[in-house]
Amino acid sequence: MARPVLIFTESGIYCPAGDFHIDPWRPVPRALITHGHSDHARPGHDAYLATPEALPVIRRRLGPITADTLPYGQSRQIGGAKVSFHPAGHVPGSAQIRVEVAGEVWVVSGDYKTEADGLAEPFAPVPCHAFISECTFGLPIFRWEPQPMVMARIADWWAENAAAGRTSILGAYSFGKAQRLLAGLPPQGPILTHGAVEEMTQTLRDQGYRLPPTIRVTPEVSARTHPGALAIAPPSALGSAWATRLGPASEAFVSGWMAVRGIRRRRALGTGFVLSDHADWAGLNAAIRATGADRVFVTHGYTAPFRHWLETQGYDAGIVATEFMGDDADLPVVE
């Protein structure tokens, strides 16, 4: 029996024919990286390969590294494997990685979403024999509203707060979600950013991504200097001294997990907006169907129920253990 194109090791997903890992969580000689989130792009590898759009964020987070790029759709022979990167739609620069060995094609999705958001390169299905899919939101209860509806709801909340003399503070992941909000919300007042958000935003601006002007919050910036502002910060900044300086304020959290009332209640999150950079139930199923794959491995999320569902649909399905925490790592993922 032929050896699998990819195998699952203690360091992560490994390709024997090419002698490389994909998104490994332990230091390895050669790492192919799907995107710049810290659970996928980790320090310590001897060499990195990513898309040109993903590498600037990776370098900003990891510092000096030995790295090369491979543009979307171009192929490279690495040992006995032919590899290429294809848009995942998750965040700017994110990729699915196609690996072909002796005519057998496997695709590692990384993280992905199927709804175009106007900023990240839109998801493109890749035909394959085996597909490794995340399933962060792999239950039928997770069904996202179209992005324009959610953005309109956030804009209304912002306008109501401004009319009442309050700053609007949105908790959102500093890379990806924050810039998606910046690109998608209508201009209706000053936009303030936490330092972590501003660094990632400027990195994307420097690459040519179109994002509106923002003002980094410093000790001189307050609700008095910028009345009616919207502030975007990492979730950890909600309720902190950083947020206090912008008071009076109304805080909200932006995440796919806001679809779960129990999480909102346990975390004492009053206002929540449901917006995720991961595929929902319908998106996961549509993406898998579009690959034409017979074998599907699921990872990161509701793996057991999603694998069972796939098996009822006729797929040869399995689970890949992972150390990925996800870009909503402060919120639980239930296996």
Provide a descriptive summary of the structure in words.
With 335 residues, this protein is α/β, with parallel strands linked by helices. It folds into two domains: 7-142 and 277-319, Ribonuclease Z/Hydroxyacylglutathione hydrolase-like (Metallo-beta-lactamase, Chain A, 4-Layer Sandwich); 147-273, 3-Layer(aba) Sandwich (Rossmann fold), CATH 3.40.50. It is built from eight helices and 19 strands. It has helices at 55-62, 147-163, 177-184, 195-207, 241-244, 261-266, 281-291, 303-312, and strands at 7-9, 12-15, 20-22, 30-32, 47-50, 67-69, 75-78, 81-87, 95-101, 104-108, 130-135, 167-171, 191-193, 215-216, 230-233, 249-254, 271-273, 295-301, 316-319. The strands form three sheets. It has a seven-stranded mixed β-sheet with strand order 7-8-9-10-11-18-19, covered by helices on one side. Strands 1-2-3-4-5-6 form a six-stranded mixed β-sheet, with no helix packed on it. The chain has a six-stranded parallel β-sheet with strand order 14-13-15-12-16-17.
User: Which architecture name of the largest domain does CATH use?
Assistant: 4-Layer Sandwich
Q: What is the domain tally? A: 2
Structural class: alpha/beta
The termini sit apart by 32 Å
| Molecular shape | globular
- Return the CATH class of the largest domain: Alpha Beta
* Strand order in the sheet with the most strands: 7-8-9-10-11-18-19
The tally of strands reads 19
H/E topology pattern: EEEEEHEEEEEEHEHEHEEHEHEHEHE
Strand content: 15-25%
Mean pLDDT: 93
Which stretches are low in confidence, meaning pLDDT under 50 for 5 or more residues running? 328-335
Rg over alpha carbons: 20 Å
CATH H-level superfamily of the largest domain: Ribonuclease Z/Hydroxyacylglutathione hydrolase-like
Instruction: Characterize the biggest β-sheet.
Output: 7 strands, mixed
